[in-house]
Every structure is written in C-alpha cells, then in structure tokens.
Amino acid sequence: MSDLILSTHESAALFGRPAAIDLRPAGAEQVRSSLLGSVRIDPRHNGPRRSANGGFAAGAIARHIDADVVTVRLRRRIPLGRTLYVSGDGAHGCLVHHGRRLIAEARPGSLVPAALPAAPAWDDALAAREAHPFVGQKHPLSDCVVCSPHRRDGMHITPGPVRGRPELLAAPWSVDSRDAVGGTASYATVWAAMDCPSYPAAALRDRELCLLGTMTALVERRPRVGENLVVYSWTRARQGRRHETSVAIVDSRGQVIARADSTWIALRRQRVARWASRFR
After folding, report:
1. Domain 122-278 in CATH: superfamily?
2. CA-to-CA distance for 248 and 149, rounded, in angstroms?
3. pLDDT tens-digit series, residues 159-171
4. CB neighbours of residue 113 within 10 Å
5. Number of alpha carbons in the 13 Å side-chain half-sphere of residue 48
6. pTM as predicted
7. Do domains 6-108 and 122-278 have the same CATH topology?
8. What is the pLDDT at residue 10?
9. Is residue 126 within 8 Å of 90, Cβ to Cβ?
10. What does each C-alpha distance from 132 to 135, 137, 151 come to in angstroms?
C-alpha cells in the first residue's frame, strides 16, 4: 500500500464523517502562493452519500495537469458543492485542499503496458448490467450518480459480470446531454464512466465493499451525446485488500476511446449483511 493511506478515507468517504488523521498539509500561505485554480463538484455527482463520485472528482482534478495520462490519488472523501483549491506541488503535479486538509493529489502518470482483453459486444454489456448483484438493493453506494440503476438523473453505467467471461465486468453507456458540454461528454464525465465499472470483479461477486484509491487515465476522445459505448474492466492483481484493475471504453466500431488503471481498497470491516437490504 505504498501510494495510499487507507485510514484517512475509509469511513469518511463512505459515511460523510470527517477523517480523524491529520496529514499536515502545506500552510494556507504556501497554498495561496502556488494556486492553480479551484474545483467544485456538482452535488449531483455523488458516489457515496454526501461525497463526490471518485471518477468525477479525479477527472475534474486531472484537468490541472499538463499531460495526456494523469494519475489522481484520493486521500480523503471529496466534498460536494464546496470550493477546493488546487495548488502546484513544484514537480509538475498538484495538491488539492479543502480548507487546510490535503484531500487529493495529481501528477503525470503512465498506464500499465499490457494487451487489452477483447471487448464485450453491446448486447453482452446490456446483459451484464442486468446481472449486477445489487439491483433492487440499497446500500451506501446505491445512490451513486454513475452506477445506480435507480436514479432517474444518473448515468446508469451499472457494471455486472459478462456472460461466459466472469473475470470481466461490463456496462453499456449511452451518453446523455446532462453530462455533456457542446454536444460531447465532459472530460470529467469520461473519467466517471470508467470509475464504477473498474470495480474488482471478485469483490463485486463476493459483495465486498471497496473504495477507489488511485486512478490513472487517458482520454483519447470524448464521446458524443447519443453515442452508445461499452465500458469493461478486468483485474490485473490482488494483494490482501488491494485490487489493481484496468478499464476501457470502446465505441460501436470497437475503437478504444479511453483507458484507465485503478487501485481499489477493500474496507477492513465488511458489513455486507447489514448495509445491503432490499428496497421496499
């Protein structure tokens, strides 16, 4: 776990409570002196309740890095509707603060050099969405703007196992104008579309709750409103509670328009039997 401090955001990101550990960020004067800009996550773009979806937050932060491939590390929950200040770190990266708390970092990154598995077909992605194990249940992530199957204003990118290929998760994505700028999906929306589908397949199967720690992404092209895409992922490695996954978005011609590598961390205390319950 060399690049993620788990205890700072495990409970905070999930339940909205402030983290107890002080990471001793740079002082306010230093932050102001290297200010690059600010980020504000729309309250609609939640993942866990009262916190930002990790992909939307990471994509918004990544825009401040001058690189095609960017790595974003989420250290704490990302609040919704608050101004977050982005400052340079003196080494081509940036630091994101909420008040005096360091909550995220970003820097130029690189993707794992590996061949991609063959992408599932559109119909297979539709079937995978229907196979999502938490359809019809409520839990701390069931209101996520990206993967919730129940939200009328959501993106409905609900991942599930691919038929005959259980090592893959997949979901269809039809780009909505609500998540677009000038007729194409926003940059942060493309990152968000790769967040939930990159969830570890084994963890989803076993109903193990994980949270996004780091995300490294490359956006080759932003898709158009109305375009139908397939988002699919696979797990590269697992070590204890740490899962390393990769995800890709392909268009109707099978062209990869975006890719990402993610690190997911399983919570130490799994309470699946209590936090997943049937909607009534």
Report:
1. Hotdog Thioesterase (3.10.129.10)
2. 21
3. 999 999 999 999 9
4. 5
5. 21
6. 0.85
7. yes
8. 34
9. no
10. 6, 10, 15
Q: 72, 221 in Cβ contact below 8 A?
A: no
d(CA 56, CA 41): 8
The confidence band for 8, taking pLDDT boundaries of 50, 70 and 90, is very low
Does the pLDDT of residue 247 top 50, yes or no? yes
Distance of alpha carbon 27 from alpha carbon 276, whole angstroms: 41
Burial of 200 (0-12, 13-18, 19+ CB in 10 A): buried
160 closest CA partner among 192, 189, 112, 126: 126
What are the residue boundaries of the structural domains of the chain, listed by start? 6-108, 122-278
Calpha distance 192→258 (Å, rounded): 11
C-alpha separations of 64 from 37, 75, 83, 200 in Å:
8, 17, 15, 28
Evaluate whether the domain defined by 6-108 bears CATH number 3.10.129.
yes
Count CB neighbours of 76 within 10 A. 21
Q: Which residues of 229-262 are buried (b: 16+ CB within 10 A; e: fewer)?
A: bbbbbbbeeeeebbbbbbbbbbbeeeeebbbbbb
Interval 229-253 mean pLDDT: 96
| Angle between helical axes of 54-62 and 187-195 (0-180°, round to 10) | 140
Backbone angles phi, psi at 118, to 5 degrees: -60, 135
